[in-house]
């Protein structure tokens, strides 16, 4: 009997990949904290996960060739810009303390996703061994 890893692992591999892409965005924000006119970017993990789990997720359609297509460059997630709490004189919207907190939070959630996947593999190994 073949093992279907998509069913066995569930949503966790996609969540892990999305967390990885979010950490890249947050690290880019931190690296550009002193760049004038740099706009902090992020994605809404919960919204992407809800769209993935929802069977009635609708996509935006262009009705005219001149319309701009939505930016969906991260695993189906729309990358948005973060609104700053305090305005900067040079136009930069990166707030280091917020970015560091978001990065740390994302790192913890990445580790949790890894543990979920590890637990699933451990369960599969137990089933294969017949223990």
TrEMBL record:
Keyword presence, Nuclease: no
GO CC annotation, single: bacterial-type flagellum basal body, rod
Principal localisation: other
Keyword annotations from UniProtKB, A to Z: Bacterial flagellum, Cell projection, Cilium, Flagellum
Entry's transmembrane regions: none
InterPro entries in the cross-refs: Flag_bb_rod_N, Flagellar_basal_body_rod_CS, FlgB
Domain annotation Flagellar basal body rod protein N-terminal: ranges: 14-39
One GO process term, biological-process aspect: bacterial-type flagellum-dependent swarming motility
Location within or outside the cell: Bacterial flagellum basal body
Quaternary assembly: The basal body constitutes a major portion of the flagellar organelle and consists of a number of rings mounted on a central rod.
PANTHER family found in the cross-reference section: FLAGELLAR BASAL BODY ROD PROTEIN FLGB (PTHR30435:SF12), FLAGELLAR PROTEIN (PTHR30435)
Known function: Structural component of flagellum, the bacterial motility apparatus. Part of the rod structure of flagellar basal body.
Record family assignment: Belongs to the flagella basal body rod proteins family.
NCBIfam families xrefs: FlgB (TIGR01396)
UniProt protein name: Flagellar basal body rod protein FlgB
